[in-house]
Amino acid sequence: MKPTSPNLLLAELEPAALSKLEHRARRIEAHKGDVLQHPEGELQAVFFPETAVLSVAAGTSAGESVDVTLVGSEGVFGAFEACGSQRVFSRLAVHLPGNVLRVPASAYRELFDQSPALRNAVHRYVELLLIEARQFVACNALHSVENRLARALLDTNDRSGTPLLMVTQDALAQLLGVQRTTIAAAVSTLQRAGLIRSGRGALELLDLPGLEQAACSCRESLSIARRGIWTSARQACEA
Prior knowledge:
Blueprint: H1 15-24, E1 26-30, E2 35-37, E3 41-42, E4 45-49, E5 53-59, E6 65-71, H2 79-82, E7 87-88, E8 91-96, E9 98-104, H3 105-114, H4 116-142, H5 145-160, E10 164-165, H6 169-176, H7 180-192, E11 196-199, E12 202-205, H8 208-214, H9 218-230
Antiparallel strand pairs: 1-9, 2-8, 3-7, 4-9, 5-6, 5-8, 10-12, 11-12
Helix pairs in contact: 1-3, 4-9, 5-7, 5-8, 6-7
């Protein structure tokens, strides 16, 4: 039977390459709030989420920080740095608990050199991250917090595979870059509409079609981009 992986990037690998990587990797059970990588340090490992959802935070010299993206089973953290400066300037933490495959940076670099499938998958993922970064700049400027929150909840549901999200309002405020009181008001609006149910340390998504209607148009724009990138038959350029 062909080996496979719950991580979509690793699922693209040649069977021999995947077996080699998993032999040198360590599967860890990541708990909510765990910090897997501190900023301004040397990259020791590349992280491939399997069932966990990770958050990447950017900070300032004044000590402020905000989550800039989530990484689930569709992605990876550290793949670019491992083949570049091998330095990290973002914090990687666990947004939702689950399993993560931790691959030593040296093992990842070796596999990256040997596997055309991995290079192609990572290239597509980088392309998608650039599109997301540009889209989120527009989203923050153009769309209401309620619309952005609906999109963020649906995106998290896509990555976690469950409508019960063990996430706090503080974490959502960090994710959207707004005050907690602003998130509390947005959560209240969606709850009154019957779209979600808020509890202590958790949110339950009650009406996914309704949330799709409430979400900003960036969700559809990014969905179109993802389909275009992942279904493309073109191969990445060789380094």
